[in-house]
Design brief:
With 319 residues, the protein is an alpha/beta fold. The chain is built from ten helices and twelve strands. The chain has two domains: 110 residues, Rossmann fold; 180 residues, NAD(P)-binding Rossmann-like Domain (Rossmann fold). Strand 11, helix 9 and strand 12 form a beta-alpha-beta unit. Bound molecules: NADPH dihydro-nicotinamide-adenine-dinucleotide phosphate (NDP) and oxalic acid. Keywords: NAD, Oxidoreductase, Pyruvate. InterPro entries: D-isomer_DH_NAD-bd, NAD(P)-bd_dom_sf.
Length: 319
C-alpha cells in the first residue's frame, strides 16, 4: 500500500528562520488542509508534491519545476516580482491583501500627508543642523486636497482614512465609481481635473504597462505649484529625473518615497540626500506573518472549495 504524501506549501518569504512561525500559523488557520509547510531551499522536497508556493520574488524558472503547482500566493499585494519570472506557470496568482495591510497602508499614507503638511522635511533638516527656526505652515488638513491614484483595496482604505481626518479627498481609477465622501474620477479623460485639484498626490496604482512612468514631467506640471507627492505604489510609477527636476525647480514642494526602481535603494541614489524628500525602505504596509498565513489559508480553502478567491490577480486586466 502506498501512502499519499501531504500537499506541500513551499514558503520562501522570511527564509529558514521564519519557517517555525509559518508552520505554527498554518497549523492554527488551516489544520483541515493538511498542508506540509516546507522551506524554499529544502533540497529534500519532492517536486511532485508541491501544490502551493508562498513567495515574493521567486528565482526565475523555479516555479516551473513543480508540475502539480495549483497556485502561487504572493507574499505581497503587488505581483510584479512574480510576473518577472519568464517561465512562470499558468496557475492562479493570489495577491496578499489583508485587513492589516489596508490599515497599515492607510496609516502610512495619512502619516505621510501629515508630515508633508507640517513640512517635516524642513524640520528634519533643521534638526540635522541643530538649527532652531520657528515657522508655521500655511494650511490645515481641512484646506488640503488629497488625491489618491488607484482606488483598489489599498487606495480606497487610504482615501477613506484621509477623508475621516478632514482632508478634501479625491481618487482616480480606471472605472467610474461612487464612494460617499470622495470625489471619484476615472480614466485618462478625467485625470487632468483630478490633478488640478490635488495638493498631495498619493500613488497606489499597480505596476502595469499603462501605469509605468505615469508620474512624469507632464503629469507633475498639472499639479498646482507647491504640491507634494507620496509614492507607495511602485518605483516604476515615477520618472525619477522628472520628479527631481520638479522638486529642484520648486513646482513640487516635497515627497515621501517608499518604493524605488531598484530596491534596496543604492547608496549613491540622489533621493537619499535630497532635502525635500523623505525616503522609507518599502515599509508602508507589510502585514505580520500570522496575518499573511491566515489570508493564504483563506485563499487555498476557497480554491479547494471552488468558491471565489479573494484578491486574485487578473491576467487580462494586468492587476
Ligand atoms: P488593486 O488591484 O486592488 O487596485 C488597483 C487600483 O488601481 C484600482 O482602483 C484600479 O482601477 C486602479 N488602476 C489600475 N490601472 C489603472 C489605470 N491604467 N488607470 C487608472 N487606474 C488604474 O490594488 P491594491 O490597492 O491592492 O494595491 C495597489 C498597489 O499598491 C500594489 O499593486 C502594489 O504595487 C502597491 N503596494 C505597495 C506596498 C508598500 O509597502 N509600499 C504594500 C502593498 C501594495 P479600477 O478600480 O477601475 O480597477
Ligand atoms: C507590496 C507589498 O506589494 O509590500 O509592495 O505588499
Amino acid at each position: 500500500m502506498t501512502v499519499a504524501s501531504k500537499p506541500i506549501l513551499l514558503v520562501k518569504s522570511g527564509g529558514e528562520a521564519a519557517l517555525p512561525e509559518w508552520r505554527a500559523s498554518f497549523a492554527e488557520f488551516a489544520p483541515q488542509l493538511g498542508l506540509e509547510v516546507r522551506g524554499w531551499h529544502d533540497a529534500g522536497v519532492d517536486p511532485l508534491a508541491v501544490e502551493y508556493a508562498l513567495v515574493w520574488q521567486p528565482d526565475a524558472g523555479r516555479l516551473a519545476q513543480y508540475p502539480n503547482l495549483k497556485a502561487v500566493i504572493s507574499s505581497a499585494a503587488g505581483v510584479d516580482h512574480i510576473l518577472a519570472d519568464p517561465q512562470l506557470p499558468d496557475v492562479p496568482i493570489v495577491r496578499m491583501v489583508t485587513p492589516e495591510t489596508q490599515q497599515r497602508m492607510a496609516e502610512f499614507t495619512v502619516m505621510s500627508s501629515l508630515m508633508l503638511l507640517k513640512d517635516m522635511p524642513r524640520i528634519i533638516g533643521q534638526q540635522a543642523r541643530a538649527e532652531w527656526v520657528e515657522f508655521s505652515t500655511p494650511r490645515t488638513a481641512l484646506e488640503t486636497r488629497v488625491g489618491v491614484l488607484g482606488l483598489g483595496a489599498l487606495g480606497l482604505a487610504c482615501a477613506r482614512m484621509h477623508a475621516q481626518l478632514g482632508f478634501d479627498t479625491a481618487g482616480w481609477a480606471r472605472s467610474p465609481r461612487n464612494e460617499p465622501g470622495l470625489a471619484c474620477h476615472a480614466g485618462a479623460a478625467q485625470l487632468p481635473a483630478f490633478l488640478a485639484r490635488t495638493d498631495i498626490l498619493i500613488c497606489l496604482l499597480p505596476e502595469t504597462d499603462d501605469t509605468r512612468h505615469l508620474i512624469d514631467a507632464a503629469l507633475l506640471r498639472q499639479l498646482p505649484r507647491g504640491a507634494a507627492v507620496v509614492n507607495v505604489g511602485r518605483g516604476t510609477h515615477v520618472k525619477s529625473a522628472d520628479l527631481l527636476a520638479a522638486l529642484d525647480e520648486g513646482h513640487i514642494s516635497s515627497a515621501v518615497l517608499d518604493v524605488f526602481d531598484t530596491e534596496p535603494l543604492p547608496a549613491d541614489a540622489p533621493f537619499w540626500r535630497h532635502p525635500r524628500i523623505i525616503v522609507t525602505p518599502h515599509a508602508a504596509a507589510t502585514p505580520s506573518r500570522r496575518e499573511r498565513a491566515r489570508q493564504a489559508a483563506v485563499a487555498i480553502s476557497a480554491m479547494i472549495g471552488g468558491v471565489p478567491v479573494p484578491h486574485l490577480y487578473d491576467r487580462a486586466r494586468g492587476y
